[in-house]
Write a structure and sequence with these properties.
Radius of gyration: 40 Å
EC number: 6.1.1.20
GO biological process, one term: phenylalanyl-tRNA aminoacylation
Strand order of the largest sheet: 27-30-31-37-36-35-34
Catalytic activity: tRNA(Phe) + L-phenylalanine + ATP = L-phenylalanyl-tRNA(Phe) + AMP + diphosphate + H(+)
Distance between the termini: 89 Å
CATH superfamily of the largest domain: Bira Bifunctional Protein, Domain 2
InterPro entries: aa-tRNA-synth_II/BPL/LPL, B3/B4_tRNA-bd, DNA-bd_dom_put_sf, Fdx_antiC-bd, Fdx_antiC-bd_sf, NA-bd_OB-fold, Phe-tRNA-ligase_IIc_bsu, Phe-tRNA-ligase_IIc_bsu_bact
Number of domains: 6
Number of strands: 41
Helix content: 25-40%
Mean pLDDT: 90
CATH architecture of the largest domain: 2-Layer Sandwich
CATH class of the largest domain: Alpha Beta
Cofactor: Mg(2+)
C-alpha cells in the first residue's frame, strides 16, 4: 500500500518535518513491514512559463518544430536558472497556443530517467530548456503533447515553482499489508494506525456525513440481490448502494494534486470520473464503480452467472463465466464481474453525462475465487477479498458524488437505490488473566482496555472478564487470541521478553521417522545424493512406472495443477528421478547416483477421490466431515527410489572406469534393507519400463516390497539419458512395518564360525530366492548367514537345469560347533529344498 504523505496528513497529524523514514518507523511499530519510498524523480529548476510567441518552422525530415519565446520569470527578474526572464525554446508539439501557461524545465533540471536538461543547439537554434509533457514529468504514461495548466484548471504567474504547484514535491511510503488487515489498504486505515503508533490526533474521513440518499424519490433506482447458490452459506452481496449524479462533464481536467496523489499511490490517471472513483477507493478503502446511467437498461440485479454466459470486461476480453461468479446485471444481461471488474457495455466515457455510482459489500470468498478463476486481480478485488467495512458504502458513494459535483460539474440528485442486510458484531469474552498469560507481559487492566478501545473496540467489564465488540472495519478480530495480539501490538512488541520455551520431555522421532532417517543416511553414506522432486507427472509416466505390467491404473488428476502438462499425482518416484538425471546430464554431469524418499499416491480402482465441499473456516469440522474429507484423499505411501547412470567408479591411473551395473543397484537395495532391519530377497520379475531378464522383484518375508532393474533402452532414450540406467524403488512404509521392533544392538558370539558350501541342481525356472528361503528354513537357528555365490548353467547338467552354489556360515552362541553339527544343519536345509523343488546335490 503506497501512502502519499500529503494525503495522510489530511486525516492524522503528521509533523511537517517528519521524513518518510520517520513515518515508516512509526508504522513498523504497529506491525507493518517497510517496503520502499516513492518520489517523483525530478529536481528543479522547473517553473511555470508563459508562451509569448512562436514561429512554426518546417524541417527537411517532414517534421514541423516551433521556435518559442517563453517567459519563465516576471519581467525584469532573473529566471530560476540564472538566465533571462524570456527563454528561447525549441518544441516539437503543436497543441499549445500563445498565452498558454506551460511547465518549463530550465537548464540544470533533471527529469525522470534520469534526463538532465541543458541548453543545446538543435534545428538551428539554441534551445534554452524544454516545455514538458505530463509523461516527461512522471504524471502518467500518456503523451498527448504539452501539459497546459489550463487543462488542469490551474493558473500561476510565470516563474512560479511548478513542482510545488503540481504536487510533485509529495512523497509516498510503501508498506506491506498482511491479508488479515485489509482495512489498512486505505488512507483512512493507515492514518488510524499512525495515530496508534504515535498518539497523533486522528480525523476519521468515514465519520463525515456527506448527505443521505433519498430512496423514496420518484427517480429512485431499483436494486435487488438474487443469490440462489451462496458460497459457505453466505449470499454474494450483503449491501449495495447506488447513487445518481447527473450532468457531469467528463472532459473536465483532473486536479493536479489528485493526479499526483494517484500516481504516487500507483494508479494511472484515466479521466476525471474514473480518477474520482479510484481516489475514494484509496482514501476510504471502499471500491467504487461508476456506470454510464444512460447505457443501463432497467434496474440492477446482483446474481450468480448461469451456464454458458459470457461477459466482455473493461480490458476488452470476453470471458466465459462460471456458475459461481457473482455478476452485476441489468435487463440486458451481465454488465460487470462483481467486485472484480466492470463490463465494457456500461463503462464511463467522454460521452457520459449521467453516472450511477455503486458502492457495495461483497462476500470475500466469492470475490477471491472469481478473481483467481479469471486471472484478473484488481485493486477492487484485492480489498473485497480481505474484507471491506460494511459501514462505509453510503459514505463512499456520497463522497464520490460530492467530488463529481465539485470537479466534474455534476448535480447530485441524492436519488438512487440501496439494499442492506442488517449487520452486527458479536462481543468477544476476554478473561482478565488471559492476555498477560498468553503474551508473557504483565499488562495492567488499564493498558488492556486502552489498547482495545484505541483500535475501535467497545469494551464493557465484569468481575472476571471484559466483553469487547470489535469495530466494523476489523473483521479479523474474531476471538480472545486476536484481541490479545492487538494488545501486544499496540503496547509494543519490544515489551515481549525473549525466552526460549522448554521442550517437553520424552518426545522424539517416531519409530517410522527414525527408520526413514536411517535409510536416507545409509544411502547418503553409500555415495548417493538426495534429489527431492515435485509430486506431479503425466498419466503416461504413471502407467509406465507406476504399475507392475504397464496396465492402466487409476491416477489422481488435480483440478488446478501448477503445470498443465503434468496434472497427475505421481504413482512412482522414478519419473522425478529421470527428470533430475536428464537435467544433470544436459549440464555435463553424466555419472549419477541419486535417490529420493517421498510420497506416492495410489488410488484404489473404482473409488472417486476429491471433493468440492469446503468446510467453513474458523470452525472445527465434526467427525463425519473429517471422515468425508479423509475418504476424499487417495492412499499415500512413502517410497524410496534410487537411480544410477554412467560410471560407478571413475577412470583412475592404472585402472579403467567401471560402469554402473545391476550389482550396484542391488547393493543399494541391500543398504536399504540393512538400515531398515530386514533381509530383502530378489526374484526375477517383470516391469513395463524395465529390461526383461534384468528385472528383479523385491520381497521381505514373502511380501512384495518393490523392484530393481535396468531401464529399457527405449525408455532411457526417451528421457534423453545415454547408456545404461539402473533403478530401484521400494515401499518404505511397508518395509519398515515388516521390520517390526528393531533390535538396536545384538551380542556378538565369542565362538568361531563353521563355514560350508552347498551346490544344488534345480530346474532353471526355480528362483534363487525361493531356494535360498528353503535352505534358511531347514538349516535352523545355527545358520548365521547364507549368500548365493555361483549360478552355473552348462555342460555336465541336465537340459533345463542349473546349479546354484551357496556359502553358509554357522555359529552357536554357547559353544564351538563341530563339523558334524554344521553338516547336519546344512543337510536339513537341503532336505527342505529337495522336498519343495526337487533339488539334488551336485556331484
Amino acid at each position: 500500500m503506497r501512502v502519499p504523505l500529503s494525503w495522510l496528513r489530511e486525516y492524522v497529524d503528521v509533523p511537517q518535518d517528519a521524513s518518510p523514514e520517520d513515518v515508516l518507523e512509526a508504522l513498523v511499530r504497529v506491525g507493518f513491514e517497510e517496503e520502499d519510498v516513492f518520489r517523483f524523480e525530478l529536481t528543479g529548476p522547473i517553473v511555470v512559463g508563459e508562451v509569448l510567441e512562436f514561429v512554426e518552422e518546417p524541417q527537411s525530415n517532414g517534421k514541423t518544430i516551433r521556435w518559442c519565446q517563453v517567459r519563465v520569470a516576471p519581467e525584469g527578474e532573473t529566471a530560476a536558472d540564472g538566465g533571462d526572464a524570456v527563454h528561447g525554446i525549441v518544441c516539437g508539439a503543436g497543441n499549445f497556443f500563445v498565452g498558454d501557461k506551460v511547465v518549463v524545465t530550465l537548464p540544470g533540471a533533471v527529469l525522470p530517467g534520469p534526463f538532465p536538461i541543458a541548453a543545446r543547439k538543435t534545428y538551428g537554434h539554441v534551445s534554452d530548456g524544454m516545455i514538458a509533457s505530463a509523461r516527461e514529468l512522471g504524471l502518467g504514461d500518456e503523451h498527448n503533447g504539452i501539459l497546459r495548466l489550463v487543462e488542469l484548471g490551474l493558473d500561476a504567474p510565470a516563474g512560479t515553482d511548478a513542482i510545488a504547484l503540481l504536487g510533485l514535491d509529495d512523497v509516498a511510503v510503501d508498506i506491506n499489508v498482511t491479508p488479515d488487515r485489509g482495512y489498512a489498504l486505505s488512507i483512512r486505515g493507515v492514518a488510524r494506525e499512525y495515530s496508534h503508533a504515535t498518539g497523533a490526533a486522528f480525523r476519521d474521513p468515514g465519520a463525515k456525513v456527506w448527505g443521505e440518499v433519498n430512496l423514496h424519490d420518484e427517480s429512485a433506482f431499483a436494486v435487488a440481490v438474487v443469490d440462489e447458490a451462496p458460497i459457505r452459506g453466505r449470499v454474494g452481496a450483503s449491501e449495495f448502494v447506488a447513487r445518481i449524479v447527473r450532468d457531469v462533464d467528463p472532459t473536465k481536467p483532473t486536479p493536479a494534486w489528485m493526479i499526483a496523489r494517484l500516481t504516487l499511490a500507483g494508479i494511472r490517471s484515466l479521466g476525471i470520473l474514473i480518477d474520482i472513483t479510484n481516489y475514494v477507493m484509496i482514501e476510504l478503502g471502499q471500491p467504487i464503480h461508476g456506470y454510464d446511467l444512460d447505457k443501463l437498461t432497467g434496474g440492477i440485479t446482483v446474481r450468480r452467472a448461469t451456464a454458458g454466459e459470457k461477459l466482455e470486461t473493461l480490458d476488452g476480453k470476453v470471458r466465459d463465466l462460471s456458475v459461481e461468479d457473482l455478476l452485476i446485471t441489468d435487463e440486458s444481461g451481465p454488465i460487470g464481474l462483481a467486485g472484480v471488474m466492470g463490463g465494457g457495455t456500461t463503462e464511463m466515457t467522454d460521452a457520459t453525462r449521467n453516472v450511477l455510482i455503486e458502492a457495495a459489500t461483497f462476500d470475500t470468498v466469492s470475490i477471491a475465487r472469481t478473481a483467481r478463476r479469471h486471472k484478473l486481480p484488481s485493486e477492487a478485488s484485492r480489498r473485497f477479498e480481505r474484507g471491506v467495512d460494511p459501514a462505509i458504502p453510503f459514505v463512499a458513494a456520497a463522497r464520490v458524488a460530492d467530488l463529481m459535483v465539485q470537479y466534474a460539474g455534476g448535480t447530485d440528485t441524492r436519488a438512487g437505490g440501496a439494499l442492506m442486510n442488517p449487520f452486527s458484531t458479536a462481543g468477544i469474552v476476554l478473561p482478565r488473566a488471559f492476555v498477560p498469560a498468553l503474551i508473557g507481559v504483565e499488562y495492567t487492566d488499564d493498558e488492556i482496555v486502552s489498547a482495545l478501545e484505541m483500535v475501535g473496540c467497545e469494551v464493557s467489564a465484569n468481575e472476571e472478564s471484559w466483553i469487547a465488540i470489535p469495530p466494523t472495519w476489523r473483521p479479523d478480530l474474531t476471538d480472545k487470541w486476536t484481541l490479545a495480539e492487538e494488545v501486544a501490538r499496540i503496547e509494543g512488541y519490544d515489551r515481549i521478553p525473549s525466552a526460549l520455551p522448554l521442550p517437553p520431555s520424552g518426545r522424539g522421532l517416531t519409530a517410522a521417522q527414525q527408520g526413514r532417517r536411517r535409510v536416507a543416511n545409509a544411502l547418503a553414506a553409500a555415495g548417493y545424493v538426495e534429489t527431492p522432486s515435485f509430486g506431479f507427472t503425466t498419466e503416461e509416466q504413471n502407467d509406465l512406472h507406476g504399475s507392475p505390467t504397464g496396465a492402466h491404473l487409476p491416477s489422481v488428476k488435480l483440478a488446478n495443477p501448477l503445470d498443465g502438462q503434468a496434472p497427475f499425482l505421481r504413482r512412482s518416484l522414478v519419473p522425478g528421478l529421470l527428470q533430475v538425471a536428464h537435467r544433470n546430464v544436459s549440464r555435463g554431469l553424466t555419472d549419477l547416483a541419486i535417490f529420493e524418499t517421498g510420497v506416492v499416491f495410489l488410488p484404489k480402482p473404482g473409488v472417486q477421490y476429491g471433493t468440492a465441499f469446503v468446510p467453513p473456516l474458523a470452525v472445527r469440522p465434526d467427525a463425519a466431515t473429517l471422515a468425508e474429507l479423509d475418504a476424499s484423499i487417495p492412499p499415500q505411501h512413502r517410497h524410496v527410489a534410487v537411480l544410477l547412470a554412467g560410471n560407478a567408479v571413475a577412470k583412475q591411473p592404472g585402472s579403467a572406469a567401471v560402469a554402473a551395473d545391476l550389482v550396484d543397484a542391488l547393493d543399494a537395495v541391500r543398504a536399504i534393507g540393512s538400515a531398515a532391519g530386514v533381509t530383502i530377497d530378489v526374484a526375477q520379475g517383470e516391469r513395463a519400463a524395465l529390461h526383461p531378464g534384468r528385472t528383479g522383484v523385491l520381497s521381505v518375508g514373502g511380501a512384495e516390497v518393490g523392484y530393481v532393474g535396468e531401464l529399457l533402452p527405449a525408455v532411457a532414450e526417451a528421457a534423453d539419458l545415454p547408456g545404461r540406467v539402473l533403478v530401484a524403488e521400494l515401499d518404505l512404509d511397508l518395509v519398515l512395518s515388516l521390520a517390526g521392533e528393531r533390535v538396536i544392538a545384538a551380542s556378538l558370539s565369542g565362538y568361531p564360525a563353521a563355514t560350508q558350501d552347498v551346490s544344488l541342481v534345480v530346474r532353471a525356472d526355480v528362483a534363487a530366492a525361493d531356494l535360498r528361503a528353503a535352505l534358511v528354513e531347514g538349516a535352523g537357528d545355527l545358520l548365521e548367514s547364507l549368500r548365493l555365490v555361483d549360478d552355473y548353467r552348462g555342460a555336465g547338467l541336465p537340459e533345463g537345469a542349473k546349479s546354484l552354489t551357496f556359502a553358509l556360515r554357522f555359529r552357536a552362541s554357547d559353544r564351538t560347533l563341530t563339523a558334524a553339527e554344521a553338516t547336519e544343519a546344512k543337510l536339513a536345509g537341503v532336505a527342505v529344498a529337495a522336498e519343495r523343488f526337487g533339488a539334488t546335490l551336485r556331484e
